[in-house]
């Protein structure tokens, strides 16, 4: 049985929960996400199976920073009018992509020389000594991918690199040196490398300051902090009886 399950950083052992019969079983060693059953019990499931899902936002004051998120690790960069977060916990490309999306952002897409400089400056704040664990600390995943596994690299938003505004690979790259280097990364010098997607590396998320909106607010956005008050969030609140019906009929994914 896998030792650890987390809800966005909180060990499951600290959350009241009950497993469904014979769960968790990590069937075929491929079940890394949790699902909530209609009876309130839980199981581990494959992450790539589509299911209904439930979003949650606390019904209390939420203070969003200039980046439109309560996450203090997103920092606004005036040179690009975007926000960035450097993740020092290494992840595979797929999980890194998931993590950025879960935070309302995306794996960083370098659109210009200016943004490449921004990334170089971010790297300076993260020398290898601040990153824990045995992984290569001079590369970080970015939002580009070799979609058709040839020479055609695109951003995760579907643009060719030239079209996106920046396409500088490090000399000798991409080299597909470990067969399957279809995922993009950036060196400390701001140049790209291709990496094996299943290897864990640091990664950088980019976020639009105004997206997703945390709440309605009179504060001028995106460059002013906003406070969301009770009841003004934009989330669609399901009436309890409606939610109960959903819970009776469907199994739903829970964030992992
Ligand atoms: Ca299972
Ligand atoms: Ca960008
Ligand atoms: Ca490479």
Automatic annotation (TrEMBL):
SUPFAM superfamilies from the UniProt entry: C-type lectin-like
Any single Pfam family the record assigns to this protein: Lectin_C
Domain C-type lectin: 19-56, 79-206
Highest taxon above the source species: Eukaryota
Segment forming the signal sequence: none
Protein name per its UniProtKB record: C-type lectin domain-containing protein
Record organism: Arctia plantaginis (Wood tiger moth)
